[in-house]
Automatic annotation (TrEMBL):
Residues 212-243 are annotated as: Disordered. Gene3D superfamilies: Homeodomain-like, Tetracycline Repressor, domain 2. Residues 17-77 form the HTH tetR-type domain. The lineage of its organism: Bacteria, Bacillati, Actinomycetota, Actinomycetes, Micrococcales. InterPro entries: DNA-bd_HTH_TetR-type_CS (IPR023772), Homeodomain-like_sf (IPR009057), HTH-type_TetR-like_transc_reg (IPR050109), HTH_TetR (IPR001647), MftR_C (IPR041347), Tscrpt_reg_TetR-type (IPR023851). Residues 40-59 bind DNA. Keywords: DNA-binding, Transcription, Transcription regulation. The gene is mftR. This is Mycofactocin system transcriptional regulator. It comes from Citricoccus parietis.
């Protein structure tokens, strides 16, 4: 999209930039050089050669800028999951898709590292990540739900989404300060450590669901265990031994 009628809003600086990617690149560069708090939307717009109005057509807030066109990236993750054959075990499928999703061209590595460094350290961006990562987790949960024939908002799809995101974020944190390493290797290693979740497709999900349903009164049951320390259901008192 080109803004041909905003010549009065242009300032000296770079050529006009009206894409998510270019605006994000300019913003991240300024944030990295001067500090996130010290860079205003107006300064980014000036550097890009566009107006504030144009900036807000692409990003609702300054905190959204380091994410670039995140909606497009979420759909790319969905596409990676769709490409995985159905006979690949659940977590192996998620692992493969997330690794492929996180492959970065060599020329974009430094910019990507700077983005993630901002997103995972700046307080305002950390808060924004709660909203952004919700969409990421939802894609994983929806994929898991289809594989397990469950609702996307049920326990196990939500669990897999949270675990996958945690693995990815842990990998990001290790990769950011390690300039000579490969992000895909960190991602793959993180998922390699998650093995038992594959068993969800082997009837374990149904068994655990039954277990959860049978303990629906959870807190009350736990209270009963505390009230009766001789209860054999209390693992700390196996055999009814009193301590």
């Amino acid at each position: 999209m080109t803004e041909n009628h905003e010549t009065s809003d242009r300032t000296l600086g770079r050529p006009r930039a009206t894409t998510h990617d270019v605006l994000a690149e300019i913003g991240v560069e300024l944030f990295t050089r001067h500090g996130y708090e010290n860079v205003s939307v107006q300064r980014i717009a000036d550097e890009a050669g566009v107006s504030r109005r144009t900036f807000f057509r692409y990003f609702p807030t300054k905190a959204d800028l380091p994410w670039g066109d995140f909606a497009r990236e979420v759909e790319r993750l969905r596409g990676e999951l769709a490409l995985v054959p159905d006979d690949i075990p659940l977590m192996a499928a998620v692992r493969h898709a997330v690794v492929e999703f996180n492959r970065v061209p060599p020329e974009a590595v430094d910019q990507h590292r700077a983005r993630l460094g901002l997103i995972l350290t700046e307080p305002e961006l950390i808060a924004r990540s709660l909203v952004k990562f919700l969409d990421w987790r939802r894609v994983i949960a929806e994929f898991t739900a289809r594989r397990l024939d469950l609702e996307p908002t049920s326990f196990f799809p939500e669990l897999v989404g949270e675990v996958a995101l945690s693995a990815a974020v842990a990998a990001y944190r290790q990769w950011i300060p390690s300039p000579d390493t490969d992000l895909s290797t960190f991602i793959d290693t993180a998922f390699a450590a998650i093995v038992d979740l594959d068993r969800l497709e082997q009837g374990v999900a149904a068994q655990l669901s039954t277990r959860l349903e049978s303990r629906g009164a959870g807190p009350q049951e736990n209270h009963e265990h505390r009230a009766n320390p001789g209860n054999p259901g209390n693992p700390r008192n196996a055999g009814g031994e009193h301590r």
